Amino acid sequence: MLLRERLDISETAFVQIVIWHVPQSVRGSNHPFKYSLALISNDICVLRYDNEAGKGDHKHVFNREIPYQFMGLQKLKQDFVADVSAWRNQQWQQ
Fold it and tell me: Residue 35 in contact with residue 29, Cβ under 8 Å?
């Protein structure tokens, strides 16, 4: 395991990031990492980046699954943080 982190971002929301270095690529991915970066709000996963075996790199936005082009761990974290920030801004405007 390279990273396991949980950060509370409000009273009802948190992010959890888990990244492993694996001996061989997860089926469907072309890199040596297995990851799950999730945003949970009111006990519902509203955003998740992961690379499940067979599905490859993708993200979930509520119930939609969208392909994601993995370009390194730093870019993965940047993209996730940007999506979390966009979600937070949208929540505050409602």
Answer: no
Distance CA 67, CA 52 (A): 12
Q: Are 15 and 38 in contact (CB under 8 A)?
A: yes
Q: Which residue has the tokens 């409602």?
A: 94
Antiparallel, parallel or unpaired: β 33-41 and 58-61? unpaired
Q: Output the pLDDT for position 55.
A: 92
pTM here? 0.93
The tokens describing 79, both together, are: 């993209």
Q: How far apart are CA 81 and CA 70, in angstroms?
A: 15
Q: Name the β-bridge partners of 55.
A: none
DSSP 8-state assignment for residue 77: H
